[in-house]
Design a protein that fits this description.
About 45% of the residues lie in helices and about 15% in strands. The protein has eleven helices and eight strands. The chain has an eight-stranded parallel barrel, surrounded by five helices. Helix 1 packs parallel to helix 11 and helix 7 crosses helix 8. The relative contact order is 0.15. The model has no long low-confidence stretch (mean pLDDT about 95). It binds 2-phosphoglycolic acid.
Length: about 250
């Protein structure tokens, strides 16, 4: 069985010093938990600080965004090569906060996915509908189009490093997670979309994570669903003790 992929998304939280203190508390608690692959997606400024600490552990480091270019006049941006040099192996792409607050569309997300893959980064590609879209019964249509547009021009086996995180926007940071039924239905649907477009091998291999108000007390139920291969955890990953408890509950 594939290990469950449990990824933390710290968002804009923690300085480098705080990240180091977190990890020193976290690892003794999480070390020894079997069957889980832990990824910490941290602010850019924490990557170098954490790299030597995670080196002797099974924890992987990830960033939360990446630019698609090699280099150039893109003030404030970070390239894939800059990330891989820090020791990051994962990167979140297309998070709904980036889509909404920084106007990232499917086309930009697609460019970032191409760039990340070609540099050997493992993207955690986020999709998910808004509450309005769900209320209008459009959630599957929206998610299918995000998946297909985001992965345009990429095929199996290049997709083997991609994970997809289904994060309904209405569940992020609200304390209201999708019900197991809602999450299960969408994950099975994404699996079908992947199979139709990329074939059975891709559909089987691509880990599908659930994200949105994952907590210590709902992680087990969500990750026991057939098509849920892990979780992307925001708020509940910020406290080392709580996050290690969440991981062992998964
Ligand atoms: P949350 O965030 O766990 O705080 O809801 C999840 C995410 O945005 O990835």
């Amino acid at each position: 069985m594939k290990p469950l992929l449990i990824a933390a998304n710290w968002k804009m939280h923690k300085t480098a010093a705080e990240a180091k203190a977190y990890f020193k508390e976290f690892w003794p608690l999480a070390n020894g938990v079997k069957g889980k692959l832990i990824v910490l997606c941290v602010p850019f400024t924490c990557l170098h600080a954490l790299a030597p600490l995670v080196q002797k552990t099974t924890v992987c480091l990830g960033a939360q965004d990446v630019h698609f270019g090699e280099e150039g006049a893109f003030t404030g941006e970070i390239s894939p090569r800059m990330l891989t040099e820090t020791g990051a192996s994962y990167v979140i792409v297309g998070h709904s906060e980036r889509r909404k607050l920084f106007h990232e569309d499917d086309e930009l997300v697609n460019k970032k996915l191409h760039a990340a893959i070609s540099h050997g980064l493992k993207p955690i590609f986020c999709v998910g509908e808004s509450l309005e879209q769900r209320n209008q019964g459009k959630e599957k249509k929206v998610v299918a189009s995000q998946v297909l547009n985001g992965l345009k021009g990429i095929s199996w086996p290049s997709l083997r490093n991609v994970s997809i995180a289904y994060e309904p926007v209405w569940a992020i940071g609200t304390g209201v997670a999708a019900t197991p039924k809602q999450a299960g239905e969408m994950h099975t649907f994404i699996r079908e979309v992947l199979e139709k477009e990329f074939g059975q091998d891709a559909a089987k291999a691509i880990p599908l994570l659930y994200g949105g108000s994952v907590k210590t007390d709902n992680i087990k139920e969500l990750t026991s669903l057939e098509d849920v291969d892990g979780a992307l955890v925001g708020g509940a990953s910020l406290d080392a003790e709580k996050f290690s408890e969440l991981i062992s509950n998964a």
